[in-house]
Amino acid sequence: MEDNSSQAGSAKENSDQNSEGNSLNKDDSSLETIVRKFQDTVSLGKKHKFWETQPVGQFKDVGDTSLPEGPIEPPTPLSEVKQEPYNLPSQYEWTTCDMDSEETCNEVYNLLKNNYVEDDENMFRFNYSKEFLRWALRPPGFYRSWHIGVRAKTSKKLVAFITGVPARIRVRDEVVKMAEINFLCVHKKLRTKRLAPVMIKEVTRRVHLENIWQAAYTAGVVLPTPITTCQYWHRSLNPKKLIDVGFSRLGARMTMNRTIKLYKLPDSPATPGFRKMELCDVPAVTRLLRNYLSQFVVAPDFDESDVEHWLLPTEDVVDSYLVESPETHEITDFCSFYTLPSSILGNQNYSSLKAAYSYYNVSTKTPLLQLMNDTLIVAKQKNFDVFNALDVMHNESVLKELKFGPGDGQLHYYLYNYRTQSALKPSELGLVLL
Amino acid sequence: MSEWQSLLQSILIGLIFSYLLAKLISLVVTFKEDNLSITRQSDASVEVVHHPKKKTTVVGGAPNPRGPEAAHDRHETESMIAEQGSVRNESLPCSDIDDDDEDDSSDDDDDWEGVESTELDEIFSAATAFVAASAAASSSQKVSTDHQLQLYALYKIATEGPCSAPQPSALKMTARAKWQAWQKLGAMPPEEAMQKYIDVVSELFPTWLDGSSLKRRGGDDDAPKTDSKGPMGPVFSSLAYEEESGNELKMEAIHAFAREGEANNLLKCIDSGVSVNMRDSEGRTPLHWAVDRGHFHITEVLLSRKSDVNAKDNEGQTPLHYAVVCERETLAKFLVKQNADLDLRDDDGKSPRDLCESDWPWMKQPGSTD
């Protein structure tokens, strides 16, 4: 009752404002202006009306240590989750994309190939391979219903896509079931149709239907509110091509000759016992990785089936190497990278850029520097043009020495419906999303 | 005793009465709260950049919504601004939809009939973005609740079509008002709704298009960079250009002309008496630079002007070393024809032949450059 009456008071005041005009409430509105200005400053002058309605860490709460870490909203009973899909504009319809079907997989591949993420200058566009998509979207326990497409009703053409895959992600001491949201793509011809928000809501709804209430995702833009912001670094393996296609630039005082010499790598890895990971290594790699990842604040909670799926080498998708001690045959170190080529737009000589992305690396006996250098060597042998890495985990300590240069891209990491009390340093993050 | 009873009775009646009164008040309160949240959610505080002609009305602005009711309500009914605001995140994940030159795909253009974005879409999109943006700014012009509801309903029709949601409970005034406004428009076609939405915005803010993003299609105002990044997902990063530091290289104009492939300037330089074998501080001649950058024509010019084909830089490397390391086969062949020495060793003891990693058959067998 008391609560209500205080609301009554404020409601009355406000309705007075509305009816009586503006003379009385200068104070109120200026107070409001101040509040707004403050919010503007903390949100870097940007408004995120969509995200402000979502259970995500809000800019206004940054630094508020009174808010507990953990879920922002409790789960609702499954019976209260909206049962029907969200409405799409009338020309479109939802579809579930069965990635086992060659035809559907092709459609998804082509949609992404022609419409997915580009660089700022529109010189490159990600070109995830079909094998990669199947790998990325079908981990242990995946839900087909989370592979969501939108088709034009008349032509049945696939025009938009968004996905989630289940993952167990540990935040400090809590292991939380989450969805990793990725591959949000709307056809270039439909960019003003406002499909993205409804797609995000729809994937959220379908995640909720599986009784999962948290999600992890990344973005190149700042939204409310990153748990950490990482920097991309790039190690040239084929500097001449990278320069020719505009991925990197040759300084006026630098020669191509010297640049090529600078990035030259030995022909084969230096560490004795360095070899490709095999199926029989899964238990040892799982132990190694679990132990290593336990030191990070946010990291996946991998079991053996996850390791087998995510880290066992798959041609042109993921490569993993390890160091097996020649004496004890113990597995002491591990490194991995995934293959993500990009289309080169509008270059006469080259159409594809082959990039390796550092995935999970564990060093216990072999120094990380040497381990990563051996990784670069095998990536070079496999004809990659560039090796990319984020400054997550312990990467930063070796990047400069291995001749990585900073990239122009930042990657922000987010959790949905899970508050972390303070932002992490990139080196406290043990999670790599594809 | 009966006095006692009547006293009790009147107390009881009083209690019941005050209970009812309290209930009534709380009902009124809920009603007002809901109204307020209409105001807040559906853009009460739409505001515009100051314009002299504009008649300013109430500067009301949305009251700061606190209290559990309001918060709950906010969750329950989707805020109109929220939906509209999110439009700005929409242009994902890369920019210019305007030039479709990139479309190398096998898309059949007929398939896009009625599906792809039209000009109306774009203006509508700009209008919703304008409404959302202006709601976020600080000096606000109030839009009447009627207009807000109208905009809301048109927006819903344009984006979701006819109202098929169940009617919200009578106690949820905001939700109900919004639902009714939407419902009332029946099966209005989305295009009509978009057009009407634009009309309402234009009526409320006659100048809204003046500052709009549609302008940028003509001008070369390099508008939101963030357009190239999607609302979520990975990021394409390339090497950031770093100014070389600590590179103390000293070079002359003639080296720069050779490097940049500027034949005319290069010739002028030579004709004015600059030595064609001029060294930079690393001992490189213009020929080293021309070969390094792959300028065939400049290489020809320099050699025709008696450039030393076997000139060594400070590391003992000749232009042919450069051609081989930089994998420039045509140039390498040409240099060899011009008597470049395939077996001249640099300071590391490597000849061009040693350094050759490319699969150039003519390089492997001595004396067979043809």
Provide a count of the helices of chain A: 12
Which structural class do the helices and strands of chain A define?
A: alpha+beta
| Total DSSP E strands of chain B | 0
CATH architecture of the largest domain in chain B: Up-down Bundle
Distinctive features:
heterodimer, A: 434 residues, alpha+beta, Aminopeptidase, 2 domains, 14-stranded mixed sheet, 12 helices, disordered N terminus, B: 370 residues, mainly alpha, Acyl-CoA Binding Protein, Serine Threonine Protein Phosphatase 5, Tetratricopeptide repeat, NMT_CS (chain A), glycylpeptide N-tetradecanoyltransferase activity (chain A)
Description:
The complex is a heterodimer of chains A (about 425) and B (about 375). In chain A, helix 9 packs across helix 10 (about 305-310). Chain A has helices spanning about 1-20, 25-40, 50, 100-115, 130-135, 195-210, 240-245, 255-260, 280-295, 305-310, 370-380, 395-400; strands at about 90-95, 125, 145-150, 160-170, 175-185, 215-220, 230-235, 275, 300, 320-325, 330-340, 340-345, 350-355, 355-360, 360-365, 385-390, 405-415. Chain A is globular, with a radius of gyration of 25 Å. Chain A is about 30% helix and about 25% strand. Chain B has about 375 residues and is an all-alpha fold. Chain B has 2 domains: about 1-90 and about 120-215, Acyl-CoA Binding Protein, CATH 1.20.80.10; about 255-365, Serine Threonine Protein Phosphatase 5, Tetratricopeptide repeat. Chain B contains 15 helices and no strands. Chain B has helices spanning about 1-40, 70-75, 80-85, 120-135, 145-160, 175-185, 190-205, 255-260, 265-270, 285-295, 295-305, 320-325, 330-335, 350-355, 360-365. The termini of chain B are far apart. At the A-B interface, helix 1, helix 2, helix 3, helix 4 and strand 2 of A face helix 1, helix 2, helix 3, helix 4 and helix 5 of B.
